[in-house]
């Protein structure tokens, strides 16, 4: 008996919460119906949003794969040491033995001048021309593979500067130099993706904001009547906000599908290219978390564009007495 007022209050609170949730669901479904009733305008806005997000997302895929290549080859650096022509095989073998004592070196391979000439004769196609040479023009070569710790760019360069000081060495070449250029290009693309992504996100907000503005102006009289009968601005704004959310969801799905299809399309050409270099690298598209993040970003952009528009234009509409 004493708990009856508390139970009544609790029941009233529950009904109020469920009533609010029901109204939100009704307005969300109603805003989706409004988009369905204007298919051309809605589809154009959704496509613009999806395409705008596809470009930076696709560039992100290429940056991610470029970083993957860098990590894959970062531990496979190799230093080529070209010995002086006056160095004998005995002196070269002594150099190999000294290099194997370096803690930064994992493996050392010696290629004599005769072996280098034989390989060049087989691969170059100038076998007959080489017969006219008085002496072998190719030097002996030592291939040095650093340890995993010393195979990174900076460490490998330090090792190169150290071992080229050996008296038998004429010149040294770090085969990882191309990776430095790749990392620089990757960093440049990352900056481009970041800047381009900001610009495209701003354009998406403006496009959705303009679309919502036109929808508000088309319903200007209905909004004035709703205010006249006591509807609050929050109640009137809610369907337009949900419209922005729907734009974001649908645009994000189109962007996700587009990026996946583009990655599949480019993967065929990349596989053909990597096969020429005897590599099995495969293009990696957006993972599940990245796809969810892309859709969430599209929703936030849609909501931001619609919020800016409704805050400005719905407040400006006031009922007028005839």
TrEMBL record:
Major site of localization recorded for this protein: membrane
GO biological process, one term: cell division
Domain (ABC3 transporter permease C-terminal) ranges: 196-313
FtsX extracellular domain residues: 78-158
Keyword terms, alphabetized: Cell cycle, Cell division, Cell inner membrane, Cell membrane, Membrane, Transmembrane, Transmembrane helix
Subunit-level organization: Forms a membrane-associated complex with FtsE.
NCBIfam families: FtsX_Gneg
Family stated for the protein in its record: Belongs to the ABC-4 integral membrane protein family. FtsX subfamily.
Protein name: Cell division protein FtsX
Organism: Thalassotalea profundi
Organism classification: Bacteria, Pseudomonadati, Pseudomonadota, Gammaproteobacteria, Alteromonadales
